[in-house]
Write a sequence for this structure.
């Protein structure tokens, strides 16, 4: 085999990059969770950038040619100036940008911080927290002068954003984290060049309920229960047992794994296809079946009591998607 | 002198009762403020909470949902569901710092032209006190 041929084969290898922004690191673990298949991936791909697993510097990315990376898997939402900068940089250097996991797709758990702003987040994290010992009341600043010079930190924004609120995104891979099957579907589609239209969400067009093992009958709830309040889970739809399950409002693709473990869906798959707002859909669905028996005899006070069993609507209905919701942050009092 | 704030209201009116009620207000020449833009829906139960949030997000200062009186729903139980939905939605809005009073659910029958005019007048006055929607300012 000639040297040139070898070179051209090597060139055909897929050039991948992974990055994490405001995320927990679970998505990185999910990549490794494809087990020995990671060796297949390495067989067909070069990893150009992956801060969590290998030693790279930002200047390595800056030195790359535009579009040198074939696919960038970007997890985490955008919370700081640094994350925004790297998102924009990686966008420039990548042919395809994939929003990887619930945080990048819909904002995720970090997105729940949109009920506050920087000032409130800092106050709780650095000052008010009972386990925090901070007598000098030091909170992060973007720059501070010390005798050796000036130290800087990236700006911490008031509002958490999704990846596509920051840069142009080609594909979305929802889930907290995406399951190995979903990841392999995405990688397979890229390798075989069978890419869906730009902007596609890699996932089925059906809800979690479609993949759930529990039997579903007529839905009516008398009262809402937390999981720990139920002694024994019956083999029927959790909603029918009074447990709030976001299955009906959530896109499937996860094989309803949480349900397999007798836990309700909390909505990491994001809204179902063509739905604008996952939380609002679930509010509609839940309110429709809650207290449906004898509804014609119920007084307004009784109805209100039923509704007040939902103690935390934001955390319940928008656990993974506040930044991408129609109302995506709390209105702060001036 | 600054012009008085005129709230922008989206009204979802049920085909069988409230839209007919609004029609009656018109044919009876009952005066009410022109701030409401009415959308006819077959039942107040058809009003998905997504519609309400979208209206608010796109700049409506208030959203009125009007349906048949309890027991009168053409589809038997749509209005009961709407009652519960709006209450749950208001809880969410309150937590998001949006005044829940911006969403209002009322029962207006086909013979209540006068009540429809009254509801709209009251709502407009209430929204004038609340001021413009704060949602125009959020990112």
């Amino acid at each position: 085999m000639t040297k040139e041929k070898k070179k051209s084969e090597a060139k055909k290898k897929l050039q991948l990059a992974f990055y994490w922004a405001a995320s927990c690191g679970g998505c990185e673990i999910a990549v490794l969770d494809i087990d020995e298949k990671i060796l297949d991936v390495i067989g067909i791909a070069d990893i150009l950038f992956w801060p969590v697993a290998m030693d790279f510097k930002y200047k390595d990315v800056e030195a790359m040619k535009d579009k040198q990376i074939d696919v960038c898997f970007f997890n985490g939402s955008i919370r700081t100036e640094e994350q925004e900068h790297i998102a924009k940089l990686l966008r420039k250097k990548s042919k395809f940008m994939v929003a990887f996991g619930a945080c990048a797709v819909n904002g995720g758990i970090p997105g729940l911080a949109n009920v506050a702003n920087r000032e409130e987040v800092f106050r709780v994290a650095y000052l008010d927290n009972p386990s925090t010992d901070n007598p000098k009341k030091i909170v992060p600043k973007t720059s501070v002068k010390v005798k050796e010079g000036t130290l800087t930190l990236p700006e911490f924004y008031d509002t958490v954003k999704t990846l596509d609120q920051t840069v142009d995104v080609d594909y979305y891979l929802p889930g907290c984290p995406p399951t190995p099957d979903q990841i392999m579907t995405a990688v397979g589609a890229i390798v075989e060049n069978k890419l869906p239209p730009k902007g596609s969400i890699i996932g089925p067009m059906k809800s979690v309920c479609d993949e759930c093992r529990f039997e579903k009958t007529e839905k009516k709830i008398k009262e809402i229960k937390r999981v720990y309040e139920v002694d024994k889970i019956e083999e029927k739809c959790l909603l029918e047992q009074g447990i709030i399950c976001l299955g009906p409002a959530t896109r499937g693709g996860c094989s309803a794994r949480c349900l397999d473990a007798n836990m309700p869906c909390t909505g990491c798959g994001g809204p179902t296809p063509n739905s604008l707002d996952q939380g609002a859909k679930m509010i509609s669905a839940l309110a429709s079946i809650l207290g449906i028996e004898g509804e014609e005899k119920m007084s307004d006070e009784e109805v209100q009591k039923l509704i007040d069993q939902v103690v935390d609507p934001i955390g319940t209905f928008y656990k993974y998607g506040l930044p991408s919701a129609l109302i995506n942050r709390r209105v702060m009092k001036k | 002198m600054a012009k008085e704030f005129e709230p922008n209201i989206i009204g979802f009116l049920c085909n069988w009762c409230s839209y007919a009620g609004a029609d009656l207000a018109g044919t009876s020449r009952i005066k009410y403020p022109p701030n409401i833009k009415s959308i006819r829906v077959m039942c107040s139960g058809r009003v998905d909470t997504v519609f309400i949030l979208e209206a608010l997000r796109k700049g409506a200062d208030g959203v009125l949902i009007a349906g048949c009186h309890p027991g009168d729903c053409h589809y038997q139980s749509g209005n009961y569901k709407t009652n519960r939905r709006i209450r749950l939605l208001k809880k969410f809005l309150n937590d998001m710092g949006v005044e829940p009073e911006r969403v209002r659910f009322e029962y207006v029958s086909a013979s209540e032209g006068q009540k429809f005019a009254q509801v709209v007048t009251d709502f407009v006055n209430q929204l004038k006190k609340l001021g413009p929607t704060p949602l125009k300012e959020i990112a």
